[in-house]
Every structure is written in structure tokens, then in C-alpha cells.
């Protein structure tokens, strides 16, 4: 079927709740950064608000709901489905005849409809991550970060990002921060809002740098600079805090370079590590002469705060 005007296609992926973090990692590897929980092809008129959340809508359409990816290109979704069908057994994600479906969403306003699936992300009483259509004044959190989900890359929905933000709140934010693999710039923005006086956001992907710069401008935060280069080529060597939210394999490869760029009293925040890899990662950090100060776990993921021995 050819792509038609005003028609969007929906790829639904039915998996258990425990497998959704693994799916998010697979989608990230495949370059898919935007997905939602629950279809927009549903009726939420009767939903009730409980503590600012449409609880009935959440229970019916979000909890235990499929992971949804939208595209106007049906062939792209078919190709993506084939890739996931190949990868699921390798990731030990159950696969059956009802795991996937593709259907058209014949709604001329679908590009607006999917917004209902993106809920604000609240990190305690301190940080609210909001899409641009939400009114920041409604939220009581001290810091508001505006991130457009349609811009791709990190939107704060993934547990690895939330782990970083929670650990950042546990710290007295130092003056000089390095954000390695900045993506959307969400962690660099948070560091600036939490009090850092100098933030260097680094990435090797020019699209990430472009989007991060747009997000920084949209959030009107100062003190953030950008570098499009490998971390080894960064001149400054005296950062008080380095943050890296990257998958564990490439993360291990750059940890020695990260250590070279923090001061003797500096700290390193590392995320993107599966809980199943945690013990192995502890040994790796100790071999690199890093002292583990704190470990935080959320779902299938964990994050570390370390310092130099």
C-alpha cells in the first residue's frame, strides 16, 4: 500500500512490561527515538483526573499497552518490524503471532492526537520535563525543562535519563560539568538549571548538537557550550562532574578518557547500564581505580556515581 496524504500508520508491539526497557534499547540501536505507550486511536472522553493524571485513561490504554511507533511510511514500519522479529529472540523477548500489528490511522489530525500519549515527567519536587504544549505554570517543580518529543533523541522518558536526573539532584551541583553524549541536551540543561556555572555538552553526532542547541535556546539557559568532537580532543581537563548516559559497551571504551578530563576531586555519573551487567560493571570500575559512591536502580537499568581513588 502506498503512502497516502493524511494517513499515518501505526506499528504496535505487544510485549510484557518487563521487556519494554530492552525494547527501548533495541529501538535506540535501530535509530528509533520516538515511540509512545498506547494507541491514539482510542476514546479518552470519560477519563477521570486523579492527582493531575487521567487515571482511567492510563489504566485502560497505557498500563500493559503496546509500544506504538507512528510513521506516514508503511514500508518503513514493515522493515522495522522485520528487524525486531530478528532481534527479539537474541534479546530473549517473547515473540508470537500477536506481537506485532500494523494498521492505518485515518485521522487528519493524527500529528496532534499523539500528543496525548506524552505525559509530563516529574522528578520529585525539583524537575518537570514538559512537552512545549504544556503550561509550565501548572507545575510546582522548581525547574522546568521543555523538550519537544518530535525532535527525537532523549525526551526524559527513558529510565536511564531519569536515573541521571535523580542522581544529579543528590549532588551539590558543582561549577564545571561535562556532558558526554549530550543527545537532546536534557542533562546539560538540567545541570545549568541546578547551578552549574560552566557546562560543556559534547557529542559526535552533528544532529544531536543541532537539536541540543535548539533545546538550550528554547529553555533560555546560560553557561552551556557545545563541542562536536571525540572526548579525547577536549582541551579542558579539570571538570568537577562528568555525565555519560550511553550504552555500556561504548561507555566502557570512553571511561578512561572521561577520567582524564575530571579534576582529582571530581565525580563521574554513569548511566545506560543494565542491572544484569551491574556486578561486571562494578569490577570494571574498580579495575579503572574508581571508587563507587552510589548506585541507583530503576527497572532494568542502573546508574553509578564514582570518584577517583
UniProtKB/TrEMBL annotation:
GO biological process, alphabetically ordered: methylation
SUPFAM superfamilies cross-referenced by the UniProt entry: S-adenosyl-L-methionine-dependent methyltransferases
GO CC annotations, alphabetized: ribosome
GO molecular function terms noted in the UniProt entry: protein methyltransferase activity
Entries under InterPro entries matching the protein: Ribosomal_L11_MeTrfase_PrmA, Ribosomal_PrmA_MeTrfase, SAM-dependent_MTases_sf
Keywords in alphabetical order: Cytoplasm, Methyltransferase, Ribonucleoprotein, Ribosomal protein, S-adenosyl-L-methionine, Transferase
Source domain of life: Bacteria
Segments crossing the lipid bilayer: none
Stored NCBIfam families: prmA
Membership in a protein family: Belongs to the methyltransferase superfamily. PrmA family.
Protein name: 50S ribosomal protein L11 methyltransferase
Species in which this protein is naturally found: Spirobacillus cienkowskii
GN (gene name): prmA
Amino acid at each position: 500500500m502506498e503512502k497516502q496524504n493524511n494517513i499515518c500508520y501505526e506499528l504496535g508491539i505487544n510485549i510484557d512490561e518487563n521487556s519494554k526497557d530492552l525494547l527501548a534499547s533495541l529501538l535506540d540501536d535501530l535509530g528509533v527515538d520516538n515511540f509512545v505507550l498506547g494507541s491514539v486511536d482510542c476514546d479518552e472522553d470519560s477519563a477521570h483526573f486523579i492527582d493531575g493524571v487521567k487515571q482511567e485513561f492510563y489504566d485502560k490504554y497505557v498500563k500493559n499497552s503496546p509500544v506504538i511507533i507512528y510513521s506516514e511510511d508503511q514500508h518503513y514500519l514493515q522493515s522495522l518490524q522485520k528487524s525486531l522479529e530478528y532481534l527479539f529472540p537474541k534479546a530473549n523477548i517473547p515473540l508470537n503471532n500477536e506481537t506485532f500489528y500494523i494498521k492505518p490511522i485515518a485521522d487528519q489530525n493524527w500529528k496532534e492526537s499523539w500528543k496525548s500519549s506524552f505525559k509530563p515527567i516529574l522528578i520529585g519536587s525539583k524537575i518537570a520535563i514538559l512537552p512545549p504544549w504544556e503550561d509550565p505554570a501548572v507545575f510546582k517543580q522548581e525547574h522546568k525543562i521543555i523538550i519537544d518529543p518530535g525532535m527525537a533523541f532523549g525526551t526524559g522518558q527513558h529510565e536511564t535519563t531519569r536515573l541521571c536526573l535523580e542522581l544529579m539532584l543528590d549532588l551539590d551541583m558543582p561549577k564545571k560539568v561535562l556532558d558526554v553524549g549530550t543527545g537532546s541536551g536534557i542533562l546539560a540543561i538540567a545541570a545549568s538549571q541546578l547551578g552549574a556555572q560552566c557546562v560543556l555538552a559534547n557529542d559526535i553526532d552533528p544532529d544531536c548538537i543541532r537539536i541540543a542547541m535548539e533545546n538550550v535556546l528554547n529553555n533560555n539557559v546560560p553557561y552551556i557550550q557545545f563541542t562536536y568532537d571525540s572526548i579525547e580532543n577536549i582541551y579542558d581537563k579539570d571538570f568537577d562532574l562528568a555525565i555519560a548516559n550511553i550504552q555500556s559497551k561504548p561507555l566502557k571504551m570512553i571511561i578512561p578518557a572521561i577520567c582524564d578530563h575530571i579534576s582529582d576531586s571530581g565525580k563521574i555519573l554513569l548511566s545506560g547500564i543494565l542491572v544484569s551487567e551491574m556486578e561486571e560493571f562494578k569490577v570494571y570500575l574498580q579495575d579503572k581505580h574508581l571508587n563507587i559512591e552510589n548506585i541507583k536502580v530503576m527497572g532494568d537499568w542502573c546508574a553509578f556515581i564514582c570518584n577517583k581513588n
